[in-house]
Every structure is written in structure tokens, then in C-alpha cells.
Amino acid sequence: MKVLNNVVSIFVVTIVLAFIIPLPPWMLDFLFILNITLSIIILLMSMYIKSALEFSVFPSMLLVTTLFRLALNISSTRLILSQKGQAGNVIAAIGDFVLGGNPVIGFIIFIIIVIVQLVVITKGAERVSEVAARFTLDAMPGKQMAIDADLNSGLIDEQQARKRRSDVQREADFFGSMDGASKFVKGDAIISIVIAAVNLLGGAAIGMISNGMSIDQVLKVYSIATVGDGLVSQIPAFLISTATAMLVTRTASENNFNIELLKQFSMQPTAMIIAGVVAAVLGFIPGFPTIQIIIIAIALIVLGIALRNSMQKTALASEVPAAVPETELTETSFYKNIDNVYTLLTVEQIEMTFGYSLLPLVDESSGGSFIDRVVMFRKQFALDMGMVIPSVRMRDNGQLNPNQYSIKLKGEEVARGEVLVDHFLALSPGEVAEKVDGIDTIEPAFGIPAKWITESKREFAEMAGYTVIDPTSVIITHLSEVIKEHAHEMLTRQEVNTLINNLKKANQNLIEEVIPNIVSVGELQKVLANLLKEGIPIRDMETIIETLGDYGTSIKDADMLTEYVRQALRRTITRKFSDANQLRVITLDTATENLIMNSVKKSDHGSYLALDPDTVQKIATSLVQQVNKVRELLPTPIILTSPIVRIYFRKLADQFVHGIVVLSFSEIDNSVQIQAIGNISV
After folding, report:
1. What's the start-to-end Cα distance of the chain, in Å?
2. Which of 166, 236, 279, 421 has the smallest set of CB atoms within 10 Å of its CB?
């Protein structure tokens, strides 16, 4: 196994040695055949892969195969010049077969192959590689932001996001390498002409001067060897050049090149029928071979008709027969049954209504993927926050505008948005290379200025630096943000009982000891809701209940219990809000913290903050100033306080600033570096 791991390194070293060490004819024959076989394998691999990244080693492979061919050329030239044109059976056989007794024909064929490879294939592949490398690099920021959008909407998880980011980086590296590696093939084609000239002219000179051969003998011997040597190296080079062009022109698809080609051609039977008719018309031109034209025309027409009939049968088979309508009850007779009236009292936890233009996004029979995206978001939300969101009820709403949708919680609308089904939403990250034309709008989830653009402008917008999002992702992102903001409202006692029963399977003793002996289900629900309200995951239910068991005997205030639970979840909180083991925060000065602590009053129902309006206004003014100052650095500003102050300052800050996080020193892991970038002072 270790030998196999080093076989490539041994092969490359052997190639380098072949430049210097003379090779016997029998070994040269073996290596020529190996070279041809290797090039065939590379060509077939380029046809059977689904995307270029599946053959990411190709640029390095291109260098190795080019070196291999050059080493063989040098070895064959050495034999041709020193052994009177005898450089092995492979060169002699190909030279005799191609020349056919006429050296001029052989040279013309050799030159044509070299020019086709150099001018047509290699030049085209070089240009495509250059453009692909530039476009891939330009589109990288947009692709990275699109991955972040999919991750935030729950379409993909963190592992899939890392893989997609890695693929984007590898794709840029691949096309950048291909842009330079294609020069190897171009140089190989040029050097082959030089070697052919050296073989012929040098062989003629050596044959006439050193060996005393006549001009006829020289031409016969060295022309066969020259053409044979040129072709035996250019045939593999031609195959690898074709593989290069195929790789750089290949787009990512679900199937390999063969299947995609047959599939896409078979989707257009009308084109084959028309091509068959046009081919038949060519038979009327005087002098054209009628039999060959008739065979091709009939084959195309028959194939086109067969494909069209097959497509029609498939379409008919996929149609669902309409159900026979049943006799409908009148509205009055339906509600005569009092049990049916109670169905009107049911309130859905989460409900979405759509205008009629958006129904294709939701309807699975029309190809809509919205329901699948909601399922993926539910899975990701459960992994991130430890709570399973309820099913989302979806229905149409004629009272909405055609392009509008509404999100309701417990029957009341909490958000509304508007999307254009046949457009894409382009978000500007700030400065862009070039502005794109579109319909100005506001992104519904975060309130960011954006533009609706058509499909034809999507690629241009991505290259200009915009983040381009499809309509379904816009709605999913909006729904996910609404659910994250209101998750604490959707945490019912039924859901808490489900979480308890789930933990009971793994730690029955803990549940029996704490619930309901120390903490009731209602009190646990309040603590979990407090955590969710501030975006703290409740997935570690074992730690939460253990902490409540420790402090619940002496403390009955749900807010204070929540503070102790937050401290026990310090690793979770640190992971969620820190970046690269660093935490940039706004702090409170000592005087402000003392002022807040001295203003805390206790009552039978808990503690509250009693500050005079002037002091509250001063704290709020300083808070808003500091938050606005760091908004560009921190999308979610973090306020760091002492443990005893955190809960009261949080309640105070919520009245003036939205979208901030308030943490205490006890909730931060000791390994994190804290950097203060602002200070709140009165």
C-alpha cells in the first residue's frame, strides 16, 4: 500500500531521468503504448465526470503527461539520430501506415494535426480557461453570501455550508490553475514541430555525412522515423487537449457528458424531424450521393417521430385523473352539527397565506419547493435551538395582492412581504463593481434596500458583487427570522412536556427528582421561553434541568432562575456569540452599574428597576450612541455587564434599541478574549 502511495512520485522521477538516460527501443515501445493508453483514460474520465471538480488534479496531470511526452520525444530523437532511424516498432509502424509510401502526405497530415491541436483546440481551451477563471473569481463573494443565506434560512446545515464554501474555493483554484496549465499543451505542440525538423534535417545530415547514405535512402529512412515519432507523441497530446477543452467547457450537472448529451438531444424530437427533411431535400442536388442521404434522412425522421410519441405517452401517463366531485353540503347544513362549529375556534400556531401569483411556489404539483424548504428549516432550527417548531399551515388568500404573503402567529399577522415570482432579489453588499438595473424594493426579513432583477441579469449581478436570492429563499428567510424572534411565544406546555419525555428516555432519574418536585412544568416553560427570547439554544435540556434542580428549592423567581441557567450554558452562549475565540463588546462603566444596582426594588412578585426618567433618558441616549457607533463593525451589538445587572439592563435596553445582545461576565467562557469597543456612561 505504501508503494502505491508513492507511485506517482516514482513515475515523475523516472520521467526526469529519461531526459538523460538512453532508453532501449523495446522500452520506448512500451512507454509509447503506455502514453497513448493513459491519454485515452484521461479523455474518457473527462467525459464521465459530472463537474470539473471531480477531476481537480487535472492541471497537475497535464504537466506530468506533457513532461512524459517530452521525455519520450528526446529519447526517440536520440535513437533516430544514433541508430539510423531505428527507434522502435511503434514509430516504424505508425510511420509506414501514415506515409503509405509518400513522405509528403505523411508530413502534411502531421502538420495538420499539430495546427488543429494548437490553433483550434488548445487556443480555444486557453481562452475559455482564462474567462472562466476571471468570472469564477468575480463571482466568489456572491456565491459565499448565497451560501450564508441558505444556511440562515435552514436550507443547509453547517457541514453542508462548509463543503459548499470549500467547493467554491476549489473551483476558483481549479480554473486559475487551468488558465496556466493550458500553456503546457500549447508549448508541447510547438516543440513537436521543432523536434520533427531536427529529426529530419539532423538525420539527413548524419546519414549523408557520417553514414554515406544517398538522398533517396535518407528520405526513406528518416521521413518514416520523423513522421512516426511526431504522430506517436501528437496523438496522445491531441487526446489530452480534447480532454482539457471538455473539462473547461463543462458545466456542473447531475449526469455525465454522455447521458446529458443523449438526454438533451432526445428532448427535441422536432429538431430531428426537420433536420431529416432538410437532409432529404439535399438529395435533389445533382451529384450528391442519394443513397447515403436517404439513409440519414430516414434515420433522423424515424428517430424524431419515435421520441415525440414516447414524450406524449409519458405526459399522458403523468396526468392525474380528475376526482369525481362529491355532493357538497350547504354551509347551513354543515354547521347544524355543533361539533363543526368548534372547528372554527382552532387557532394555528404558525400560518402563512399567499396571493394567487405565489401559489406555484407552494404547490408541489407545480414544482414548488417551499414545503421542502420549510421541512429543512425545521430540522436546522431543531439542531440550532433545541426546539421543534410546529407545522406551518399554508393557504391562499384572495384579500392579499397577487405577489404578497402574510405570516401569522396564533391567528394574528406579525409580518407581511412581497416577492416577484419570475424575478430574483439582488442585495448589494455595499460597494459593487457595477450597478444592476432592477425594481427597487426592501428585503422583507432585514429591511435592506434591494432590487428585483430578471433571470437574464442574474449572472451579471453576481459578477458585479450582488447577492442574488430566488423568491422561495426570500420567503423562507423572512419566515425563519419571524420564527426566531417569536420562538418563545410558540413554546407551549405541550411542547415542553414533549421535551421532558424525550430527555426522560436518557435520564429518567433527573426528571423524576426535579419535575415536578422542585420545578413545575409551567416554571420550566417560563425559563425556556426566557432563553429563547434572547436567542439562547435550549438543546442542552439536561444541563438546564440540573441547574433548576440546584437552585429551584430556594429561588422561585423565573427571571433569576434563568440567569443561573444562562451561566451554566456559558459554553453554548460563548460559541453562539463569539467569533474566532474573540468577543467585541460594549461595556457599562462602574458608576452606571452601581446606579442600576442601587435602583433595584423587590416585591412579592419579583424584582424591578426603579429609575427616575432623567436617568433612564441619559442611559438610553448613551446606549443608542454607542450602538450606532459600532453597527458597521458588529451587525448584532453585544453589551457586557456584571451578572447582577444584566437582567435589569436588558429590560431597560429593550425599550430603546432592538436587535442587541446583553451578556454578563459569568456567561462567557474563560478562554475567550474580550475586546471593549465602546462604553456606556451617564
Report:
1. 71
2. 166
Distances, alpha carbon 321 to alpha carbons 273, 313, 314, 317, 325, in Å: 32, 15, 14, 10, 12
Q: How far apart are CA 453 and CA 461, in angstroms?
A: 9
Q: What tens digit of pLDDT does each residue of 473-497 get? A: 899 999 999 998 888 888 888 888 8
The backbone region for 364, taken as left when phi is positive above 0, alpha when psi lies in -120 to 50, beta otherwise, is alpha
3-state SS class at 357: helix
* Contacts with 70 (C-beta within 8 Å, 6 or more apart), sequence order: 19, 188, 191
**For domain 491-568, which CATH number applies: 3.40.50.11310, 3.30.70.2860, 3.30.43.10, 1.10.8.540?**
1.10.8.540
CATH architecture of 342-482: 3-Layer(aba) Sandwich (3.40)
The answer to whether 447 and 482 have CB atoms below 8 angstroms apart is no
Q: What DSSP letter does each residue of 71-134 carry, written as one string?
A: HHHHHHHHHHHHTTT---HHHHHHHHHHHTT-HHHHHHHHHHHHHIIIIIIIHHHHHHHHHHHH
Write the DSSP symbol of residue 326.
P
pLDDT in tens, 589-625: 888 888 888 887 777 666 777 788 888 888 888 888 8
